[in-house]
From TrEMBL, chains A, B:
It comes from Nonomuraea fuscirosea. Pathway: Amino-acid biosynthesis; L-arginine biosynthesis; N(2)-acetyl-L-ornithine from L-glutamate: step 1/4; Amino-acid biosynthesis; L-arginine biosynthesis; L-ornithine and N-acetyl-L-glutamate from L-glutamate and N(2)-acetyl-L-ornithine (cyclic): step 1/1. Catalyzes two activities which are involved in the cyclic version of arginine biosynthesis: the synthesis of N-acetylglutamate from glutamate and acetyl-CoA as the acetyl donor, and of ornithine by transacetylation between N(2)-acetylornithine and glutamate. This is Arginine biosynthesis bifunctional protein ArgJ. It is found in: Cytoplasm. Its main location: cytoplasm. CDD domains: OAT. It is an enzyme of class 2 (transferase). GO terms for cellular component: cytoplasm. GO terms for molecular function: L-glutamate N-acetyltransferase activity; L-glutamate N-acetyltransferase activity, acting on acetyl-L-ornithine as donor. The record marks A178, T179 as: Cleavage.
Amino acid sequence: MSVTAPLGFRAAGVAAGIKSGDARDLALVVNDGPSRAAAGVFTANRVKAAPVLWSQQVLAGGRLRAVVLNSGGANACTGPEGFQDTHATAEKAAEALADSAGEIAVCSTGLIGERLPMDALLSGVENAAGQLSRDGGLAAADAIRTTDTVSKISFRRGSGYMVGGMAKGAGMLAPALATMLCVITTDAELTSEELDAVLREATSQTFDRLDTDGCMSTNDTVLLLASGASGVRPDLAEFGEKVHEVCADLARQLLVDAEGASKAIAIEVVGAASEPDAVKVGRSVARSNLLKCAIHGEDPNWGRVLAAVGTTDAEFEPDRLNVAINGIWICRGGAVGDDRSKVDMRPRDVTITIDLSAGTHTATVHTTDLTADYVHENSAYSS
Amino acid sequence: MSVTAPLGFRAAGVAAGIKSGDARDLALVVNDGPSRAAAGVFTANRVKAAPVLWSQQVLAGGRLRAVVLNSGGANACTGPEGFQDTHATAEKAAEALADSAGEIAVCSTGLIGERLPMDALLSGVENAAGQLSRDGGLAAADAIRTTDTVSKISFRRGSGYMVGGMAKGAGMLAPALATMLCVITTDAELTSEELDAVLREATSQTFDRLDTDGCMSTNDTVLLLASGASGVRPDLAEFGEKVHEVCADLARQLLVDAEGASKAIAIEVVGAASEPDAVKVGRSVARSNLLKCAIHGEDPNWGRVLAAVGTTDAEFEPDRLNVAINGIWICRGGAVGDDRSKVDMRPRDVTITIDLSAGTHTATVHTTDLTADYVHENSAYSS
């Protein structure tokens, strides 16, 4: 399962003492090859954490031997010292693996603006290196949790190869709620360019269409590592599909576990003049606090949907907008449609369908409701 | 006080039975001249309520005899029938005033997507016309409340003239929380072009810099009516200042009474390369749910400030950002600054100062915290 489902990967998750208590807080994922091809996508935030700056630099070479991930501290907004801490982390892992720091990515998540406890972290790296195993994927997935209530793992079988993944962070890539970290592995044989293209395509359709609270993290990272250990050169279309499925599965797990959420809301935009228009409208609706509160209250408040659609510059005529909630078209032609009392708002999954009547393109953006629990969790948790 | 502070204006506020219960829900403001010059600014939402479409059309003539305002229903997303309802409302007021409907603006606020109870509304207009008086400003301000807990009124004295105003709606012009409606009156003598320029300048610096929840209403309207009854041609700079002060005063009242808010947050952006950059950064920070939760929890979480700044394309270098909360510079050079325990988060007013170190321009955006009360109010209230 998880990142060790494909051949050629070992992992470990240990309690390094970065977090208080004895919870796991450090993960190590190692690619034993023969290939080291890799790709990554990172937060679009201009305020980037030290590990993001480091890993972007490392990925420029298109190769990764290992990834060190820690929870308990984001190492963001920590200045040049914070960057040195990330560098030291990579050096420590390189030393333990008798390899080069230049092929070791680092990911961190937790509080912004505090230095990491480097003694604990470096011992943790050494400890994790000693515990690496072919079934360490679950422990690694556990070690990267922050406010996640459960570990997120996924895998898919391709024709002669595997794709596995783990993720954390009740959020999404861009923008992001809490930090989202994700490591995907495969034993298929691909070049870093192929991996990059597949990863960008998959994340743009999955993590990028999750928008739980419109906030973008300083640390979001999604990495894809290929060991080539299966000896199989995959069909690129099939491989892309498998990576997409793993991303979609992990994205769904992130959504369901989003901080304080009680509803999973799919915003399906149809009849758009273009796919970017559909995404734009979906994202705008996903960011309406008023609508998210209404859904929490099980109120099929289509007026708040239209108000959010109206803030975009997508192609549409206000009097041709149709909106269905859970299959009932309660708004037709920009005005009252079917009886709102017919809408069953009780299920956890809520689907809002918006027909722009402007074309044939579609996109779905996923979000959650806005709850008092979200407020409580984020009032108390200093991140 | 309120809209009847200046000479030449009468007003009334009555209970027409649009809302359930016997609360006031209909206001009428009449300009008895001699001048009828007027200007208006409206929501930027492309989904505009019928009264907005109507009033924009009326204002094209630059003259207003009267404004009818109702709470208890937004008359938004109500199709051609809703527009006819607005038209009938203006006709009814015109009949009562023996005047032309083409110089009567209409404003509505309340639920989206429901027709107004026109029998009640039209009787209410007639009733209000019968109760118009020089001291009806307070009753009018009371009648336009929805979730507002108090009436919002303001006035300023110029050199030989007055400026008065009333507003409703814990929100802002663009974007807007609930609907914001505002009527400002003056007995100074100005052309509609002068009023338009003054109003746009004043609202862009006041209501437009309120952002309580990032949501934009379908109904936001700010009107400025001049009776000329004082016979004074004002100095334009002074007049602009007075209108600005009334707008700022009303905006402050809206902020303090925003739905569920427990903190009033001023986001001062300094050192910006341009004023638009400063506004952009201020707005981005004002829309961070994570930050708004942190402030609610009295947590001086500057990391969430930087994360929000980093999502903008304003000119800045991440390692030159400084952030103060309530005067303590807890972030310097994009990293940890002064001791966060020095920040006193207990006062209701919280000031976040962001120094972009990129120039000399500044702007302040006002917002509120995000609370469980906001969630409760907006889960239960179908608007």
